[in-house]
Design goal:
Length: 109
Amino acid sequence: MNSLEQAEDLKAFERRLTEYVSCLQPATGRWRMILIVVSVCTATGAWNWLIDPDTQKVSFFSSLWNHPFFTISCITLIALFFAGIHKRVVAPSMYPFLSLNYFIYCFIY
């Protein structure tokens, strides 16, 4: 494969990658907002759970039962990570790194 064909392949790859990432942007924004909202809810619930004086006096499960907002938001956050929200939020922002790595790979070889 000569250098002209490699350059054309790189340009085609770059265009296709740009199209793919641009299609992901609206969905990524929604997933980021969901992650932010659930994270803020979990942090707020954790703060209220920690400053409650009864938390030290009762058992762990009783304190979770007494703070349903924190419990539900924490379970939701864990479920979102198990569902792969971290991949949906981070993948489109990795585009410049993927493009640069491919360019370096083609340049070296």
